[in-house]
Amino acid sequence: MTIANRHPGVRIGLDVGGTKIAGIARADDGTVLATVRSATGSGGEAVLSGILDAVHALRAQLDTVVELLSIGIGIPGLVDVAEGRVLHAVNLGVESLAISARVRDAIGVPCHVENDVKAAALGAASLRDDSAPIAYLNLGTGVAAGVVVDGRIWRGSRGTAGEVGHFVVDPNGRSCGCGQRGCIETLCGGGALARAWGRDGEWPVRDILDAAAVGDPTAIVLRDDLFRGVAAAVRALVLSFDVETVVIDGGLTALADRLESGIRAALRSDATTSPFLQSLRLDERIDMLPAHSPVAAIGAALLGTALADTTSFDKEIVPHG
Amino acid sequence: MTIANRHPGVRIGLDVGGTKIAGIARADDGTVLATVRSATGSGGEAVLSGILDAVHALRAQLDTVVELLSIGIGIPGLVDVAEGRVLHAVNLGVESLAISARVRDAIGVPCHVENDVKAAALGAASLRDDSAPIAYLNLGTGVAAGVVVDGRIWRGSRGTAGEVGHFVVDPNGRSCGCGQRGCIETLCGGGALARAWGRDGEWPVRDILDAAAVGDPTAIVLRDDLFRGVAAAVRALVLSFDVETVVIDGGLTALADRLESGIRAALRSDATTSPFLQSLRLDERIDMLPAHSPVAAIGAALLGTALADTTSFDKEIVPHG
């Protein structure tokens, strides 16, 4: 077989975040052939330029015989998957952008767009040793989950699948941007915790843990909220989908062991009065990823392969805070 | 074509409840060819006898050329689907019973067993005009849901799929049999409401609604709990699975319009402060079945046809109160 007979195909996956784009070019056997990191702009045209620049930067690293099969993009916001349009990407200053059409016009290959948490869920599932369904719980500014079954993202009817961040667990809790009080997100969302903490700092949640460790009463309450909130999210996912494992990821994972041990402890202590919960062994069913795991870009690359979804109903697209 | 060439097949479906067995013989085109109602006994041997008697009673109504293809049984309790064994069927006084094996020994056809709520979910889904995924929320002594996707029951990893009754929505709420406080079931489970009401009566939940209608303060609180609890269960199902429709069934549906209008009102009023929730139009997304809808027996009959499940992981089976 000569080299000319081998035309390996690659898929590009871009994780387009509020501040940076992380991209890979991935062969179908999982090999990552190129990577890129660049800044995201603000506003539709800047975001699009950033996407195209990242694509060009990846292609420049690839052998010319390599065929680009597809481009996949994970982006925070509400995504109309059928059209490949993102809506209400508040962090990027984008209200509505027809990403798939624009990228396909510019590059000439199919382009698939998905909500970043769902894309990351797909990537996380692809890296696991078994093919059991998983929930992927993203702890970042907000809190949301994705569920992957048989290599496919669970897509619900109106875009609220996995929105465990907006389960109310305490009617007397803090107010949430979604308009309810006492949502899980008010307990363990990075943005909500930073607002509740109210002190400037580069990384409020880390400051909360540091201050709690030396006895600050406000910090101790917020630290407990963080752990309890994540525990509630894990329970919500197990009592609905009953996945065996909840994979935990997102910006908060940089807190590493302190976060992981706190979540496990909360899962155990919340079960003290309940043989039912104890029997579920929830503390053994979480899998926290190392910080900066590239699952979002990997999952984005896989969007071109996840052809059929468990559900594919597109009703009105729902904006929410 | 002579009659001898036509050997229609039927599937028997039995809904084995705490007090009665409801059974059907169903052709694969949906025609119900025979029905039976009988009393359930208590204890494993009595339950088994009741099952076999119901099977014989159905067969006696069928033409002799009809072939019995399978027997399906929905039963309250934890079911090991692979083995066809029911565990902890407290209402029937059964701790462990190998139903499939015993029935197959006696009758000679395959026998499939499933938890009654999951079987009913399958039946409810089969009767709908479209094939979109649904959640089926059963409001009875307890509260639990089943989810059906593409004609298959969603089965989780350890038997807790759809256990929305044990989502905690108020840390200061009433104690639940599961050991937690403030579960959804403590708000809208028939058993929990009857205990909270504390007055004898044939049908405590109806008595609560009647008393609330004439201003009884305790009843008003409990009526509000009922509606709020069901609304929370609907939200839990939409914010996790994001089904388009939550089908509502179970013993409480005999309360008919009073229950349905109360649930819708709670869904609307809970959304007052949240444009997000309002946009979901949850009050338009419930479908309450008429009382005594035969979905459980229909779903049980279909168990013989639902060959592949979305998930089929059998971990340790989990008992819970």
UniProtKB/TrEMBL annotation, chains A, B:
InterPro entries: ATPase_NBD, ROK. It holds the Pfam family ROK. Gene3D superfamilies: 3.30.420.40. The lineage of its organism: Bacteria, Bacillati, Actinomycetota, Actinomycetes, Micrococcales. This is ROK family protein. Belongs to the ROK (NagC/XylR) family.
